[in-house]
């Protein structure tokens, strides 16, 4: 199957979005969640609302999981892109020289599976990044289970609605492309 600009553009898009999210993960990891000056919680006004060390540990873990998923997705997308370019190059130049031979034949099924694997990596990375952001909100504004934490819920509820909605649209689009 010869490469098309649509395939290359789609893979470039996956790599670019993953790169932006990876940057966000690194910025998140550079932030020190145990620094008391980073918290907006008033222990006198909201006793018992301060998060424990488990929340900070989960924050770092979710950032690392997110980074690994985005890196995995990007590497799969870059590998597919390279295979497509090799296939296109072999297809274009095989008639020009006697010594030219097909460098790669890209199996359409393997290409589709690669797209799905890359998409799954991006979705998992997005979910872990969302979970990390929920922990950031808990560290900054107090535990969500704590009474009177309207600001925390105000930050988390749109996150928990918009990100899964966007991921649902993304998954539906990938599924549609996979079946065509």
Provide the domain count.
1
Strand content: under 5%
Radius of gyration: 22 Å
Number of helices: 4
- From the N-terminal CA to the C-terminal CA, the straight-line distance is 14 Å
Instruction: Give the overall average pLDDT.
Output: 77
Order of helix and strand elements from N to C terminus: HHHH
**Helical proportion?**
over 70%
Identify the quaternary structure here: single chain
Low-confidence stretches: 97-103
Largest sheet: none
SSE map:
Blueprint: H1 5-30, H2 53-93, H3 108-141, H4 150-179
Helix pairs in contact: 1-2, 1-3, 2-3, 3-4
Overall description:
There is one protein chain. The protein is an all-alpha fold and about 180 residues long. It has one domain. The chain is built from four helices and no strands. The chain has helices at about 5-30, 55-95, 110-140, 150-180. The longest helix is centred in the middle third of the chain and has 41 residues, at about 55-95. Mean pLDDT is about 75; it is low at about 95-105. This is Maternal effect embryo arrest 60.
Features:
4 helices, Maternal effect embryo arrest 60, 180 residues
Summed up:
With 180 residues, the chain is mainly alpha-helical. The protein is 73% helix and 0% strand.
